[in-house]
């Protein structure tokens, strides 16, 4: 990987919420070149969202070892990076009585009319919708249209397709593949939904309990089923997590309390 081809370069990243806390990310390594489409796989709580937010420049780390397009993601954030996460839908502004056309124009949609219109068709969005009257899935489509209508170089996606129906999701995936192949755009996509994704990634990265224990996989048609691979990793993650929690005296699930009906 050279400076000319590097898109995301994250080396030995460790992050804790505050000094003295156990790290939520430890020795994370992730390197992608321009045009890569990488799936970020791991269990709930593995650190995927935290990593994406760090890469988006939304979390300050002690060490300056995360770069996008050769620039420090927090101290000197590069242009051309789009982060789309699930927290957007809880913003009261996007649930207010505003017409979609006005909403998109307020973030520059009129300057990107050709791409905006293409995305309106792909995502099946009605410009006359009122944001407070539409469903969560329709609101998510508006978010995607808003985030993707400029020509981005690096796209960080955190579970934002979970609300989409299968047709819109399939058309969106086709659009993202086209963007990477024709413009050399790079995509890092965290998801738990693997239907229709077997031909999407060029790379697959496994985050296990806040670490990257295995070398990133270069993905291709000769690889096994993506769902089967993910399921095997998640079972491995759960077994390891149970061992670590048991060593600390922690057990998930129901607990019988002294004097309770269950303990009699």
Write up this protein.
By secondary structure, this protein is α/β, with parallel strands linked by helices. It has one domain (37-248): Rossmann fold, CATH 3.40.50.300. It has helices spanning 48-55, 100-106, 113-122, 136-148, 166-183, 226-247, and strands spanning 6-15, 25-33, 37-41, 66-68, 71-72, 81-84, 154-158, 186-190, 203-206, 217-218. The mean pLDDT is 89.
Structure in a nutshell:
The protein has 264 residues and is α/β, with parallel strands linked by helices. Helix content is 30%, strand content 19%.
The oligomeric state is single chain
CATH architecture: 3-Layer(aba) Sandwich
Strand order, main sheet: write it out. Answer: 6-7-8-3-9-10
Shape: globular
Q: Helix content range of the residues, please?
A: 25-40%
Give the ordered list of helices and strands. Answer: EEEHEEEHHHEHEEEH
Strand content: 15-25%
Summary tags:
Rossmann fold, six-stranded mixed beta sheet, four-stranded antiparallel beta sheet
Give the secondary structure arrangement, pairings included.
Elements: E1 6-15, E2 25-33, E3 37-41, H1 48-55, E4 66-68, E5 71-72, E6 81-84, H2 100-106, H3 113-122, H4 136-148, E7 154-158, H5 166-183, E8 186-190, E9 203-206, E10 217-218, H6 226-247
Parallel strand pairs: 3-8, 3-9, 6-7, 7-8
Antiparallel strand pairs: 1-2, 1-4, 4-5, 9-10
Helix pairs in contact: 3-4
